Amino acid sequence: MHIPPSFLSLPVALGSGTVAAGAVAAAAARCRKTLDEQMVPVVGVLGAFTFAAQMVNFPIASGTSGHLVGGFMLGTLFGWAPALVTMAAILIVQCLVFADGGLDALGANIINMGVISCLLGGLLHWIRAERRPGRWTIALTACGAWLAVVLGAALCVTEVWLSGRLDSRELLLAWTGSMIGIHALIGIVEGAITAMVVVYVARTGQVVGLMPREEVAQ
Predict the structure, then answer these.
(1) Residue 142's Cα: distance from chain center in Å?
(2) What dihedral do alpha carbons 23, 28, 32, 37 form, nearest 10°?
(3) What pLDDT, on a 0 to 100 scale, did the predictor assign at position 46?
C-alpha cells in the first residue's frame, strides 16, 4: 500500500502531510500523559513484528505494493495513540532507510496505514475496556483488521485520483479493482494474524483492556 515517489500532486502531498503530522503530534502528546512505562517494551516488540511483516511486499499496480499493515492490531492492543506513534516510526524508517514509499507521499502513507487502522483498532480497544464483550470479540477483531486494510487501500486510490494520475474511467476502475481486490485478500490474512496475536497476548495477560483469559478459553 506504500505510495511511491512522485505519485501525488503537491496539494495532495502537502494536505496529507499536514493531517498526518497533526495526528502523530496528538498521539505523541496523549502517550506522554497516559502510556504506562511498563508497556513500552511490549509495544516495541509488537512494533518490530509489524515492521518485519510490512517488509514483505509484492507489486499491485503501476508501482504500488501490497503487504500486511498491522496498525489495527497495535490499536486494538494498546489504544490508538501508542499504535499511531509506532506506525509512524515504522513508516518513516521504511521511507528514509529502505526507500519504501516516497518522501513526498509519507503523510499519505501514514494516514492510509496508520491513522485509519490505528483509530479503528483504538475503537475496539475502548469497546473491550468499557463493555467487556464476550465470545464475539475474536471475530470482531478479524473483521476490523480486514476493514482497516480495505479502507486504507480505498483511500490510497482516492489520493492518487485526486492527484490527477487516474485521468480516465478505465484507469480508475482498473486501479480500484486491483487495490481493493488484492487488499481484500490481504485483509483476510491480516484478520487471522491479528486475531491470533490478540488471543496470545490476552492469554499471557500483558495488556490491560483485553478480554479476560476465561473469555479466550471459551
Answers:
(1) 13
(2) 120
(3) 86
